[in-house]
């Protein structure tokens, strides 16, 4: 009885300690008065700041940082417009080339803005809603509170485990496992309450700023629409935006969109959201951000984002991004759509090299090689020094000259695009059972080491396909020769037997 009472007391104590959390506010938070430059207070916070200082030193030298003073300054101006110039003065912003929807802020004032966030918000108000949320974490010192709550929970589990081991029993073990689940569940719930508090504080910043606070709810409505588009393209069930997983660190998207819409100041709906200024600031980086998004291989989400950006009007960059998205997925119907989208891009900006390159490749894949080669020639005219220029010339009859071939490591001779070769070459190649085109590739395969990365990829793909084809041919002929020998037809080999295929081709 005493042992059972002890375990029950420990379980109750765990609920009291681990479950301690601030009450969630029921309205947009009132901004606390600004108390000057933020400084760490106490041993725990000083330690967190020192860790963050070391992390920031590594971040400052990271190759992921987009080092554009204009872009970084613009993002900070949006933050200052939301939270006030006095509060944002000590914030250091780093824009990271990471195509996911996220932003973070450390206790020492370091704010990380992911490039995927910039692609998903459409105006200054939506960007300010996210940045204000992160600044709310910083101003409320949530990182420190989370650290202390985690330490209390793990300390409780450690002492409880020790006491339970002194007088082991099944009930003691069961109560400890229940306590463990309770502590971890309380910690996750504590994180979600912190997110709700930061949401309301960020909305409080917007309510008192010159930007419309209704943008905060729009951010989460767009996120839900993107997730639905992604699930639909993958053939998955529609996500449930109101359910909360046990280990969820954030409230569900539906809940956040709901209370942010309710708490937004209705009088601020007519304020300027800064959409035109945001588009102008993001324009130089939009092609790169779209390229990174397409590489995530999430067709539904990428197509939704492109069409969402195009709601203010289609541009050549948006048509190009959508064409690249369809071409890289690679079905025949996608090539037909890509041809149309590339055509729309070139119609708006005929001087866009990437559009002519993609259009040429899509036309070739669609069974229109002559039109595709013409577009590739236009690409080379616009970008003669492109990294893949020499390999693109390989796809055009007569497109590579002796100088280009010599730069690849080959000797002077007929144009590489002439796949027939000279008479002497054809005679020698025929005696070896190969075409002049294949013979020149074999003779100069050592040139691959001198190619640019994009060119080397094309070279290696050709060699892999050719080696597989010839290996399959040789395997088939060897099987036929052995079948004849087994049936007593002798070792005589007909024309085209395995012996006529050079052994070296199988190893390359």
Task: For this entry, give a set of tags.
single chain; 508 residues; mainly alpha; 23 helices; 3 strands; disordered N terminus; disordered C terminus
Question: What do you see in this structure?
Answer:
It is a single chain. The chain has 508 residues and is mostly helical. The chain is 64% helix and 3% strand. It has helices at residues 2-18, 42-60, 69-83, 85-88, 115-120, 124-139, 142-166, 170-207, 215-234, 253-263, 275-282, 286-294, 299-309, 316-329, 332-348, 353-365, 369-382, 389-393, 402-407, 423-431, 436-443, 453-486, 504-507, and strands at residues 92-96, 103-105, 110-114. The longest helix has 38 residues, at 170-207. The radius of gyration is 32 Å and the shape is globular. The termini are far apart.
Shape: globular
Which class of secondary structure composition applies to the elements? mainly alpha
Query: What is the helix/strand order?
Result: HHHHEEEHHHHHHHHHHHHHHHHHHH
Flag low-confidence runs. Answer: 1-25, 411-446, 489-508
Summarize model confidence as the mean pLDDT: 80
Distance between the termini: 78 Å
> What is the percent of helical residues?
55-70%
Architecture blueprint of SSEs:
Layout: H1 2-18, H2 42-60, H3 69-83, H4 85-88, E1 92-96, E2 103-105, E3 110-114, H5 115-120, H6 124-139, H7 142-166, H8 170-207, H9 215-234, H10 253-263, H11 275-282, H12 286-294, H13 299-309, H14 316-329, H15 332-348, H16 353-365, H17 369-382, H18 389-393, H19 402-407, H20 423-431, H21 436-443, H22 453-486, H23 504-507
Helix pairs in contact: 1-7, 1-8, 3-6, 6-8, 6-9, 7-8, 9-10, 9-13, 12-14, 13-14, 14-15, 14-16, 15-16, 16-17
